[in-house]
């Protein structure tokens, strides 16, 4: 029998096992972990023959992406219309941007330390890649102009998060303004949107149920395409990224949660673990957004409005991994590769450009290549050095996206706690064992 059919049979049996585990009421986290392990094993052993299962992962990601625009719009509009205080809305906006960008600046610092300590790029030879074409860096002015909505339908269709958020806020503010004059006139729209948002949350829950199968379908192709041998030459860079991101999460995120939100960081990370797994495997903060919002509201007990607002912004602003740790490590790697000594002025510029270029990155796979290009060119480093690490980008993107999503979730809990929109008692009450199961 053809190897592809055998691999299909094996995959079908694994999916069967995952389903059986569900019927036996096995913990959600355990099922996802099992799917990951099986996915990596099947990918490594069966290589390209296992790719027949790839569409399963693609369908899963598409299903979550399907939710993003309707969910974010409905939950933002319905939650802001419960807020009749525009001062508060302004405060929430400033705080969200502040926390998202500040944590990215801290991530740049962590990247700098890890990159320097590990002496990234030393002992490596630059190998020119003739096929490499540097990504075109958008002008800063056009990044700003692009943040504002033009045609809401085209913004929705093109998944442009920031214009969609701004449009939703404007609609919600208009509902509030009109509502103070003629409450009856806006009531049907308010009721419809609030009910629609509940339905979208319910749909999110149904799709999250598919996570173990989706994760299996996503892990197989990654493991099949990136054998250990292909990762080895750049092992040090990959290691630096994983170490940098994990230190950032443990140290920076952990202490901000303990100091500002005054809750147990381990409990927090356990509560958002579903979103982290989905981020790691899908490599898209945008695609993970419905799950991020759901874990924030249902498990972390952040209010709907902060969860939908701050987490959505965090899917394209800040990006601790893709806008902070990654471009910094790339800069250190490339500088060393070309024997360019980085000066104090370079470091200052690094912090500033990393913060600025982290605004408006799309939360899609590979997007951080743009922030890395911006940082390299503004530091005057050869952009073609980036080509050396593009071959392993998928593996690096996984931890980057997980860090981006953690950053967005951390910003949300920080804004919520400083705005009295975090239910600390409910956060503490729910027991950790249940956190790993689908609500
Ligand atoms: N894939 C990342 C995300 O969606 C962006 C990046 O770091 O490339 O958050």
UniProtKB/TrEMBL annotation:
SUPFAM superfamilies: Proton glutamate symport protein. It is a multi-pass membrane protein. It comes from the Bacteria. The chain crosses the membrane at residues 6-21, 28-46, 58-77, 97-118, 161-178, 199-219, 239-261, 344-364, 370-392. Gene3D superfamilies: Sodium:dicarboxylate symporter. Its main location: membrane. Keywords: Cell membrane, Membrane, Transmembrane, Transmembrane helix, Transport. It is found in: Cell membrane. Pfam families: SDF. PANTHER family: PROTON/GLUTAMATE-ASPARTATE SYMPORTER, PROTON_GLUTAMATE-ASPARTATE SYMPORTER. This is Amino acid:proton symporter. It comes from Clostridium omnivorum. The lineage of its organism: Bacteria, Bacillati, Bacillota, Clostridia, Eubacteriales.
């Amino acid at each position: 029998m053809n190897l592809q059919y055998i691999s299909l049979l094996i995959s079908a049996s694994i999916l069967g096992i995952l389903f059986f585990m569900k019927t036996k009421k096995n913990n959600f986290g355990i099922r996802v972990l099992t799917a990951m392990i099986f996915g990596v094993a099947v990918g490594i052993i069966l290589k390209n023959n296992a790719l027949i299962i790839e569409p399963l992962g693609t369908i899963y990601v598409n299903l979550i992406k399907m939710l993003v625009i309707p969910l974010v719009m409905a939950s933002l509009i319905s939650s802001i219309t419960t807020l009749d205080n525009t001062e508060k809305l302004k405060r929430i906006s400033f705080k969200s941007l502040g926390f998202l960008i500040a944590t990215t600046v801290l991530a740049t610092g962590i990247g700098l330390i890890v990159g320097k300590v590990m002496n990234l790029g030393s002992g490596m030879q630059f190998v020119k890649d003739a096929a490499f074409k540097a990504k075109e860096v958008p002008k800063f002015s056009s990044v700003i102009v692009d943040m504002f909505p033009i045609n809401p339908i085209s913004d929705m269709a093109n998944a442009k998060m920031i214009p969609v958020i701004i449009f939703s806020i404007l609609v919600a503010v208009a509902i509030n303004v009109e509502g103070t004059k003629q409450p009856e006139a806006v009531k049907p729209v308010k009721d419809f949107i609030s009910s629609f948002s509940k339905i979208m949350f319910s749909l999110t829950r149904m799709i999250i149920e598919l996570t173990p199968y989706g994760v299996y379908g996503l892990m197989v192709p990654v493991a099949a395409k990136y054998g250990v041998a292909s990762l080895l030459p750049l092992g040090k860079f990959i290691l630096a990224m994983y170490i940098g991101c994990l230190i950032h999460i443990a140290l920076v995120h952990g202490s901000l949660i303990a100091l500002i939100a005054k809750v147990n960081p381990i409990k927090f990370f356990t509560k958002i673990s579903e979103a982290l797994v989905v981020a790691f495997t899908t490599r898209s903060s945008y695609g993970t957004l419905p799950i991020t919002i759901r874990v924030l509201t249902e498990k972390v007990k952040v209010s709907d409005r902060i969860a939908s607002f701050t987490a959505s912004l965090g899917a394209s602003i800040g990006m601790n991994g893709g806008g902070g740790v990654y471009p910094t490590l790339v800069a250190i790697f490339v500088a060393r590769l070309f024997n360019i000594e980085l000066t104090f002025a370079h470091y200052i510029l690094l912090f500033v450009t990393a913060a600025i270029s982290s605004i408006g990155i799309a939360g899609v796979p590979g997007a951080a290549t743009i922030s890395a290009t911006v940082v390299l060119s503004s530091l005057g480093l050869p952009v073609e050095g980036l080509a050396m690490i593009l071959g392993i980008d998928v593996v690096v993107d996984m931890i980057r996206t997980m860090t981006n999503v953690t950053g967005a979730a951390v910003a949300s809990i920080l804004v919520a706690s400083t705005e009295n929109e975090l239910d600390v008692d409910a956060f503490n009450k729910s027991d950790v064992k249940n956190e790993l199961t689908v609500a």
